[in-house]
């Protein structure tokens, strides 16, 4: 029988939640519960790197669509999010990226103590086992294995060479403090298989008797009594359940689900809550605000040689993967990329992903045959949006409004990124492979047509952040210890706490947020224990 009380309850077994739960459960005296709305991470497509797009729009995907976006010519944009153990780390492109040191220094400059890059570097090192070995920037023996691509595609190698021919510097380590330049990406893989937060953190930790994980547990409400979060209500197997926390609840649902849970629990903008008939427990205006995301667009070419990932599912490639953990199925699809610093925002504003395959509308718009896709994108966006309730039904999806291109700055940067993609694509390194350009099409010949193309084909890079902003201003939701302002016993630990989006892939930084959250909890626990010991010692001495 499942206990009805734990020391700590973690909501969401995603990138941060797995890290929080694993680290807290290292203390055998603590009882830790993880509630995950999705199921186990057993499906084969999770672990075969190149298969992750096959998880889109399945039971393992929250399958969000944005509200119609004026900046996308009225389109709704698909926003997949992992709904399983490991969360989105079980269905992402496995790119190992931290962002720029200046990103975190900005957080600290906003008054968030302990969040500068040098503060976080020990956690970045702690998360990883870097197969290249230990150094000042990289750690070993951590839960997340970091590897070079096992079998990089010749098209990816051509892309890196073409970027250098276009005048960009080579870069073989985007995570040593210097981002600019182009190269092959490292990946969160081990022996050719995905290394997710579930695989690295959670599954080993579940061998401990003090850690419990319940899947298919959909949280419906936080239990708030006298200004304190004392537990969680959730649905499991069609039955309502409640569980109480002796110490704290840690909300790690992600940048869409975390604000939704807070809003459903009466924590958020009071007027919005009243509109949906929800009792206001705390008027916290910033909940669901400050949504930020990265965008990219496809610059795609037909390939004149049969070397793209179009053949990844062939029997030959299947045998190579099965027998050697090599071949196309080890590809993360976004094999290469790079950063361009325009000197505008203090860290590179443009990031490239390169796929040795078609990647148009998340794969749903791919033509037949062999092709490759340059994906330039804006990673210092100025546009912000929101996550709000559609209704008070906890099973009704939230309304996601990233407000893509709401700030004209982002469109201007995207135009520059596409121009850079054209320059790279026309370099000699691509000559053996370059067929007809598929996108943008031949009708895109004017600045107006280019802008319309961008609006029609922009995709999210799957990095929503910021909706439970960390800070001390009127729109902040948590403080720099990740405690929710005005509610005791409740923290948020996931990408939603980022006050400003980092300029790179967000998965590893989200794990670091989980690591730091657990560390802060344990430090406070130890400090409280030491204080009690001192009081007891003083009382004993007085006697």
UniProtKB/TrEMBL annotation:
InterPro entries: FAD/NAD-bd_sf, GMC_OxRdtase, GMC_OxRdtase_N, GMC_OxRtase_C. Residues 82-105, 254-268 form the Glucose-methanol-choline oxidoreductase N-terminal domain. Pfam families: GMC_oxred_C, GMC_oxred_N. Its cofactor is FAD. It is an enzyme of class 1 (oxidoreductase). Keywords: FAD, Flavoprotein, Oxidoreductase. The keyword Oxidoreductase applies. One of its GO terms (molecular function) is choline dehydrogenase activity. Its EC number is 1.1.99.1. Belongs to the GMC oxidoreductase family. PANTHER family: CHOLINE DEHYDROGENASE, MITOCHONDRIAL, GLUCOSE-METHANOL-CHOLINE GMC OXIDOREDUCTASE. This is Choline dehydrogenase. It comes from Hymenobacter artigasi.
């Amino acid at each position: 029988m499942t206990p009805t009380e734990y020391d700590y309850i973690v909501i969401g077994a995603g990138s941060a939640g797995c890290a929080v739960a694993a680290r807290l459960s290292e203390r055998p005296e603590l009882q830790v519960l993880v509630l995950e709305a999705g199921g186990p991470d057993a499906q084969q497509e999770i672990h075969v790197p190149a298969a992750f797009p096959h998880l889109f729009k399945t039971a393992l995907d929250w399958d969000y669509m944005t509200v119609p976006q004026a900046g996308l010519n009225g389109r709704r944009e698909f926003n997949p999010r992992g709904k399983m153990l490991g969360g989105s780390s079980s269905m992402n492109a496995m790119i190992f990226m931290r962002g720029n040191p200046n990103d975190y220094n900005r957080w600290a400059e906003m008054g968030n103590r302990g969040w500068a890059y040098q503060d976080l570097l020990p956690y970045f090192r702690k998360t990883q086992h870097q197969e290249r070995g230990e150094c000042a920037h990289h750690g070993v023996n951590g839960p997340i294995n970091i590897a070079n691509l096992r079998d990089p595609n010749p098209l990816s190698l051509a892309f890196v060479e073409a970027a250098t021919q276009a005048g960009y510097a080579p870069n073989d380590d985007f995570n040593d403090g210097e981002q600019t330049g182009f190269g092959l990406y490292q990946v969160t893989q081990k022996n050719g298989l995905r290394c997710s937060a579930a695989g690295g953190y959670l599954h080993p930790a579940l061998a401990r008797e003090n850690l419990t994980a319940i899947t298919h547990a959909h949280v419906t409400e936080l239990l708030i009594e006298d200004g304190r979060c004392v537990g969680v209500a959730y649905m499991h197997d069609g039955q309502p359940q409640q569980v109480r926390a002796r110490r704290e609840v840690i909300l790690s649902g992600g940048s869409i689900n975390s604000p939704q849970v807070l809003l459903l629990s009466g924590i958020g903008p009071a007027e919005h809550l009243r509109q949906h008939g929800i009792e206001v427990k705390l008027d916290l205006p910033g909940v669901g605000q400050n949504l930020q995301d990265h965008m990219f667009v496809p610059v795609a070419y037909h390939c004149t040689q049969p070397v793209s990932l179009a053949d990844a599912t062939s029997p030959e490639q299947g045998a190579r993967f099965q027998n050697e953990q090599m071949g196309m199925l080890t590809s993360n699809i976004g094999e290469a990329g790079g950063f361009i610093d325009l000197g505008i925002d203090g860290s590179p504003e443009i990031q490239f992903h390169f796929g040795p395959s078609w990647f148009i509308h998340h794969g749903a718009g791919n033509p037949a045959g062999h092709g490759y896709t340059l994906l330039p994108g804006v990673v210092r966006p100025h546009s912000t949006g929101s996550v709000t309730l559609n209704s008070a039904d906890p099973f009704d999806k939230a309304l996601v409004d990233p407000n893509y291109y709401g700030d004209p700055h982002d469109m201007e940067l995207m135009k520059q990124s596409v121009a850079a993609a054209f320059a790279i694509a026309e370099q000699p390194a691509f000559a053996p492979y370059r067929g007809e350009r598929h996108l943008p099409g031949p009708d895109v010949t004017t600045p107006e047509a280019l802008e319309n193309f961008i609006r029609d084909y922009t995709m999210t890079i799957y990095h929503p952040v910021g909706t439970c902003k960390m800070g001390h201003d009127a729109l902040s939701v948590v403080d720099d210890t990740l405690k929710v302002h005005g509610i005791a016993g409740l923290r948020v630990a996931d990408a939603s706490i980022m006050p400003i989006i980092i300029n790179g892939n967000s998965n590893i930084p989200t794990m670091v947020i989980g690591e730091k959250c657990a560390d802060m909890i344990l430090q406070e626990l130890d400090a409280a224990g030491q204080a009690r010991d001192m009081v007891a010692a003083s009382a004993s001495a007085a006697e």
